[in-house]
Amino acid sequence: xxxxxxxxxxxxxxxxxxxxxxxxxxxxxxxxxxxxxxxxxxxxxxxxxxxxxxxxxxxxxxxxxxxxxxxxxxxxxxxxxxxxxxxxxxxxxxxxxxxxxxxxxxxxxxxxxxxxxxxxxxxxxxxxxxxxxxxxxxxxxxxxxxxxxxxxxxxxxxxxxxxxxxxxxxx
Length: 171
Known about the structure:
The chain has helices spanning 2-15, 141-147; strands at residues 49-52, 55-58, 67-75, 96-98, 106-112, 118-125, 135-140, 154-161. The strands form 2 sheets. The chain has a 6-stranded mixed barrel. The chain is α+β, with helices and mostly antiparallel strands. It has one domain (25-161): RlpA-like domain (Barwin-like endoglucanases, Beta Barrel), CATH 2.40.40.10. The model is unreliable at 1-22 (pLDDT under 50).
């Protein structure tokens, strides 16, 4: 009886990660945008001001007409499952992003200025804090696939808030 159980357990272990059980990797055509919707401000991550790596950042009161250009980057597997600034677990397969100053949550359209690809993501985290003079947003792996920046790691981007405008505090 025990050898049979061990055989089943061993067979189960050998199938983990096998091509038959793993979904195909996402492609730009298969990744759907986040769907903007009104949401209450997050109870976490919406402080008026905060410090990170010796710098002070002021969180905007509203996402109203936010529009900025800079460098976008992405983050993924290393952060999978860790809590975001909103305390939601990070899921690299969702259309989410980290931004230093937009209210959490906010919805933004990110345009890769090198190839014209666009993605709508939900901001639920703070960052990027690496190279803050240039980088303005970190997108999830799924968003990076859609934007075409997985291989390069970074790209020139335009980040534009979309309606419904979100606020840092409840109205």
